[in-house]
Design a protein that fits this description.
The complex is a heterodimer of chains A (about 150) and B (about 375). Chain A has two domains: about 70 residues, no CATH class; about 40 residues. In chain A, about 50% of the residues lie in helices and about 0% in strands. Chain A is built from five helices and no strands. In chain A, helix 4 crosses helix 5. Chain A is extended, with a radius of gyration of 25 Å. By secondary structure, chain B is α/β, with parallel strands linked by helices. Chain B contains twelve helices and 17 strands. Chain B folds into two domains: about 210 residues, Medium-chain alcohol dehydrogenases, catalytic domain (Quinone Oxidoreductase, Chain A, domain 1); about 160 residues, NAD(P)-binding Rossmann-like Domain (Rossmann fold, 3-Layer(aba) Sandwich), CATH 3.40.50. The chains are: A mainly alpha (about 150), B alpha/beta (about 375). The interface between A and B is large, with 75 and 77 residues.
Chain lengths: ~150, ~375
């Protein structure tokens, strides 16, 4: 009942109006005030009228993110440093928690309770594999010392 | 909800969101879902996913506060909020591409603003929370019809429009054979919605038996497990008289399974933006001159796909984030008339406080989970 007999070849742009030829000269809302650091793509000339303010960049991860945003979205130098920053940010998050006197319950955060409830066999295999891995690392370390 | 790193989330108090722009609204969340694409965030696959972020781009809620320029909503309205943040004024919004808004994400030009989907999508906190800041409140949020179940409404924020647009982009003609890759909520909905366009066959491919069984019953389609095949592409060629499908739809995205090279290079080594296995199979299974429709989420920077086959077979690729606002009138009609039953996909309703368990349940596909809805606490 929803079949389109024309099967518009330019889809997904179904409602072409020609406005693209105005390029970036379109109507905009008022500008959201900026009171947090914002890292913006160098593929656009200005900040968007509205933007998210969650978690501004900080620390070492923030330094790496600032470097990443010096490069365009076309470049590996934009995306790989952001992934690296994410991993460093995770460690920064752990340190922040401990500094505030909170020791994260990793098992709870990872949902191990529900994994154990519904798939105890797989959980047991994972735990055993990690234990064996740690044992191997420990014994190699001991061997190296002696 | 507070993201703490790959596979780690917890509940934590954050400051109440505030009106930061005259067209903002503050919405008190009544329903929120975990999307399959949230798992890419959860698994650490999306660049610029910062510790302390709140995920969640599928939610409904009650308007608690509006900015001075908001005219279409009033306090107390119960709304469904499309996952796209759209200004309604830029060239893309004016042409119906609300998922490609140019005035909602300063951090990347390749993607419009999306609630709770990392700083790559604008750095907005999402709806897996008690309250959310909703920008451009006159454009996206839609008042839920009085006779609509909120569980159906929350599915209209992403799952239904994305599944429907996946089928729509396929340009399905009467009598076509359609193959859908992925039997998650989006794939199941795409298979169901494909029937609106008049195909003669709809086939769904996945590797999880309980989801294939659900798809068979819900979407009335053929369903096959690719782990029981030597080669899914050969299987599909054989199943289509050695011709190839007329339309292939990729509803899997970057965390596909089934190909060792793709999985190792994309999901383990992160040398590409996840594994493009489903898209590779779609391109190789479709007929010459066929259409491949992509709604499965792939992130930056790029993926290994057989572009040579796209050329030599004359394939048309159509892809986009769903333009929810454009589709809502039609889809609300489909739901209210009973032609679509989105809430049937919901298998688990979990309190927001148990978010860690909810993510693990969905990520590990435990307890026959298809779709998880988060319920804010009773006091809200």
């Amino acid at each position: 009942m929803d079949a389109d007999s024309k099967n518009e070849p330019t889809y997904p742009m179904k409602n072409y109006t020609g406005d693209d030829h105005n390029r970036i000269n379109y109507e905009r809302s008022v500008q959201q005030p900026q009171d947090v650091e914002l890292l913006t793509s160098n593929e656009r000339p200005a900040v968007t009228r509205v933007f998210g303010t969650s978690v501004p960049p900080s620390g070492l991860s923030g330094m790496i993110r600032r470097y990443a945003f010096e490069h365009s979205e076309d470049r590996y130098r934009h995306w790989l440093p952001l992934i690296l920053a994410d991993r460093i940010n995770m460690m920064e998050g752990l340190v922040d928690d401990i500094k505030k006197g909170y020791f994260p319950n990793i098992a709870s955060e990872r949902g191990w309770r529900v994994e154990w409830k519904h798939n105890p066999k797989k959980m047991a295999v994972k735990v055993a594999a990690v234990a064996v891995g740690l044992l191997i690392i420990w014994s190699l370390g001991k061997k190296q010392k002696s | 909800m507070n993201y703490r790193g790959p596979y780690r989330v917890r509940i934590e108090q954050k400051p109440m969101p505030e009106l930061l722009h005259p067209e903002d609204a503050i919405v008190r969340v009544t329903r929120s879902c975990i999307c399959g694409s949230d798992l890419h965030l959860y698994h650490g696959m999306v660049p610029d996913t910062r510790i302390g972020s709140t995920f969640g781009h599928e939610f409904t809620g009650v308007v608690e506060e509006i900015g001075p320029l908001v005219q279409n909503l009033k306090v107390g309205d119960h709304v469904l909020v499309p996952f796209n943040i759209a200004c309604g004024r830029c060239n893309f919004c004016k042409q119906g591409l609300y998922g490609n808004c140019h005035e909602s994400n300063p951090m990347a030009t390749a993607v419009g603003g999306i609630f709770g989907y990392s700083h790559t999508a604008g750095g907005f906190d999402g709806g897996q929370a008690e309250y959310v800041r909703v920008p451009y409140a006159d454009v996206g949020p839609t008042v839920i019809p009085a006779d609509m179940d909120p569980d159906d409404a929350v599915m209209l924020t992403d799952v239904v429009p994305t599944g429907y647009q996946a089928a729509e982009m396929g340009g399905i003609k009467e009598g076509d054979t359609v193959v859908v890759f992925g039997a998650g909520p989006i794939g199941i909905m795409a298979a169901r919605c494909a029937w609106f366009f008049g195909p003669s066959r709809v086939i769904i491919i996945d590797h999880i038996d309980y989801r294939l069984e659900f798809a068979r019953n819900y979407a009335k389609c053929e369903a096959y497990n690719f782990k029981e095949m030597d080669d899914p592409v050969v299987f599909l060629k054989k199943a289509t008289d050695w011709y190839g499908a007329d339309v292939c739809i990729d509803c899997v995205g970057c965390e596909a399974e089934g190909n060792t090279l793709q999985t190792f290079s994309g999901r383990v080594m992160l040398m590409q933006a996840g594994a493009g296995t489903a898209l590779q199979w779609a391109i190789n299974s479709v007929k010459k001159g066929g259409i491949v429709s992509i709604v499965g989420v792939y992130g930056p920077p790029f993926n290994l796909i057989p572009i040579g086959n796209v050329l030599n077979k004359g394939i048309t690729i159509r892809a986009n984030q769903a333009s929810v606002k454009r589709l809502l009138p039609r889809l609300i009609d489909h739901v209210q008339s009973g032609r679509l039953n989105p809430k049937a996909l919901i298998t688990h309703r979990i309190p927001l406080e148990e978010i860690s368990d909810a993510y693990r349940l969905f990520s590990s596909k435990l307890d026959n989970c298809i779709k998880t809805v988060l319920m804010p606490s009773a006091k809200h």
